[in-house]
């Protein structure tokens, strides 16, 4: 198997995983009984916002839908003055406190539902490949947006002199990008794996053990 075939296989696997998860999510949302009260949790990230818009495009005929904004709930209910980007940053006990307190929240108005559904229609028809959350909005960015950042952190971990696993580089990029770029995202490691492989193909990195699974292959910057 050559590198090009490996790259195509990686892209195909990524698409298959996405569509499998997408179809499962869609089926679960559609199966919610119409008489049920629905709470949709929202965080400060792109996937959460687009997920909300998409869910409402399916549930637009429901009248009893509440949206729980974790950042807002963190301040008002938990009295904690910091931003929540992902539900995983909140303890199960605090999530339960938020859930109970949010039962008093008003249901989404018809106008708000329609606005969010229109947002989904706009995004679903867009040709953009990559989006980030910045300044409380979704922004479309070019596919190579993170390439310079990947190279910068490759230098920081010492990949100019020695080979390091893709796992180490991707972990560093995922950990630091939100702070250094002042934005929130949950881009999966598969995306950064894809970009590193593109950079290998372009001669930015050289690679060892490229066919190893689980991001165990090693990379080094080419001087």
From TrEMBL:
Top-level lineage group: Bacteria
- TM ranges are none
Q: Where is the DUF3658 domain?
A: 103-213
Q: What is this protein called?
A: PF12395 family protein
Task: Cite the InterPro entries for this sequence.
Answer: DUF1835 (IPR014973), DUF3658 (IPR022123)
Please list the residue ranges annotated as the DUF1835 domain: 15-68
- What is the source species? Leptospira interrogans str. 2006001854
């Amino acid at each position: 198997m050559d590198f090009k075939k490996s790259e195509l296989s990686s892209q195909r696997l990524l698409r298959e995983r996405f569509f499998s998860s997408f179809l499962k999510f869609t089926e679960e949302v559609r199966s919610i009984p119409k008489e049920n009260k629905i709470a949709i949790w929202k965080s400060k990230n792109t996937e959460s916002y687009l997920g909300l818009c998409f869910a409402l495009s399916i549930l637009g005929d429901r009248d009893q839908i509440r949206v729980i904004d974790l950042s807002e709930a963190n301040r008002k209910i938990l009295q904690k003055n910091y931003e929540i980007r992902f539900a995983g940053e909140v303890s199960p006990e605090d999530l339960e406190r938020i859930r109970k307190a949010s039962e008093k929240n008003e249901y989404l108005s018809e106008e708000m539902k329609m606005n969010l559904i229109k947002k989904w229609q706009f995004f679903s028809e867009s040709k953009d490949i990559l989006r980030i959350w910045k300044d409380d909005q979704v922004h479309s960015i070019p596919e190579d947006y993170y390439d310079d950042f990947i190279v910068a952190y490759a230098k920081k971990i010492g990949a100019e002199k020695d080979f390091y696993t893709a796992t180490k580089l991707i972990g560093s990029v995922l950990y630091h990008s939100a702070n250094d770029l002042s934005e929130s995202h949950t881009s999966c490691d598969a995306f950064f794996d894809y970009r590193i492989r593109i950079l290998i193909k372009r001669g930015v990195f050289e690679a060892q053990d490229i066919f190893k699974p689980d991001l165990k292959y090693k990379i080094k910057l080419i001087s």
